[in-house]
Amino acid sequence: MSEKTDADVVPDGGTTGEESPQSAITAQFDKIKQTRRRRAFGWLALLVFLGFVTVQAFAAAELLAADFRMESLLNSMFHGANPFFPTISIGALPFLDITEYFEFIQQENLLYDPEVGGLLFQWPPNLGDIYAFFFTELGIFRIFGEAGVTLAMGFIGTVLGFPLALVFGTMGSERVTPFPFNFIFRGTMSFIRSVPAIIWALIFIPLLGLGPASASLAIAFDTIGNLGRLFVDELEEIEDGPIEAMRTTGASKPQVVFFGMLSQVRTAFIAWTLYIFEINVRVAVSVGVIGAGGLGFIVESQRGLLRFTDMMAALFAIFILIISVELFSQRLRHRLRSDEQKMGIWELITGFPNRMAQSVLK
Q1: How many distinct helices (H) and strands (E) make up the chain?
Q2: Mean pLDDT of the residues in the chain
Q3: d(Cα 53, Cα 316) in Å, to the nearest integer?
Q4: Is there a cis peptide before residue 180, judged by omega within 30 degrees of 0?
Q5: Locate the ABC transmembrane type-1 domain: which residues (predicted)?
Q6: By mean pLDDT, which of 148-152, 263-267, 279-283 is the weakest?
Q7: What is the residue range of 73's domain?
Q8: Residue 26: pLDDT band by 50, 70, 90 thresholds?
Q9: Domain shared by 180 and 34, yes or no
Q10: 273 and 195 in one domain?
Q11: pLDDT greater at residue 266 or residue 277
Q12: Which of 153, 271, 277, 357 matches a 20 to 30 Å C-alpha distance to 218?
């Protein structure tokens, strides 16, 4: 073996046949710079493409040449016989006159029906009226007036759609049904999702007529597609350990599915169902616009009569309903999380100022 000569030695102590540490570091930095440069060009190209597509979308939506009539909008919102936002002057300052909203809400029984509520809220209590409230008049939802009709449509749509969503969502997972047979269920849910709930309501009108019944069935179909898809996604993310453990013990396929798979996603399934229930109440408002009843029908009827003040009162009632449903759903989901402190509805309401102050001080 020949000895290394002085000519083979480089100033940093290495040899000409070996890459110096400094050269390796420099090469690595060059690679990082090139990677960052390619990413920068990629993001720039993506932004240019999105900008181009956005301009095309504005043109297709006729917003580039739209005739904005701001004066007309302001007049309809604050002036005229039936403005969206009626005002009252206190001194020299105008304020929103919400009393007109509450008068219409009370007049049309949007949030409370005193005739049905009178069966329950009376002193001394009348057992016959209480029995009628629960079993004859069926007033649990009717006590909330038109809001109760909307709430009932969203609730029954969720209840009717959940079982089929569970079946289709489970069978649509490749962990349960092998490819390509699972796409029979996935394709069915995709077809259901491709048709909006308001169109399903129009389809069911010849069957049940125009009313809450056809709307509830439409929301149930919509639930099958949306909730079933969420169930599929949850099943695709479960751990393999419990499944393999059950298979090694000789468990059958149904046992593996029920105890090895669905047991892992039970809490997530309940949470997603509550979330879809919130959405279904909103969908019930939209379906009501075509005449299915509830608050959506009130909004559309008042709009058709150009009574914009009353229409805004109905929208205010919708806001109260949606916030109440979300509050109820949030508390149920909160109780599903075993690692968090339990908090009841009363504690949630009475402790709100204290929690708000703590959030501000953080």
Answers
A1: 17, 2
A2: 83
A3: 36
A4: yes
A5: 147-329
A6: 263-267
A7: 67-97
A8: confident
A9: no
A10: yes
A11: 277
A12: 271
